[in-house]
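User: Structure please.
Assistant: Input sequence and predicted structure:
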Amino acid sequence: MPANQSTALKHLDVSPMHNLYASAPSSDPSKPAMNMFSCFPRRLRPDARRGGKLLFDVEILERHPYTTQMFIPLSSSSSRGREARYLVIVAPTLAPQVEGPFQRMGPPDLDNLRAFWAHAGQAVTYGAGTWHAPMAVVGEERIDFVVVQFVNGVAEEDFQEALLEKEGGICVEIQDWEREGKARL
């Protein structure tokens, strides 16, 4: 729809925010939060077994069980004409455990973990409870993000994490980064 004296187009509800804190165990009220993250490029490691292809090790996944979380890139520090990119790494949730830290909501389903590329002009919204890797900028340039979500100040309701094993753990293969920028598990 036209806006600002017809000098702009307004797109409504492009990424709805969900606040599910009413169903959280504490019943503590939540509030909207807007934070800024300056995310620096992550270290990649060469894999001699795969012809020197670059790998990104996924060591941790996190989720925000009662809120969506939106990452909106503000800028990249790109001064070399190369578009900054980042990896979006997500996994669904398994059924809750009988014992352990994930009794109310299940652990990540690592068999169905997926990786996608996003560029510095693309926002990403994680659904409430979606397991995801912390922001993983790849390349040479920093990307600044505004992050929008709800919080209630109860640590385990705002944020949960799962540490992944390093030995034989999960990695994302960066294929032909300079030409194609493909990612593969």
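The mean pLDDT is 85.
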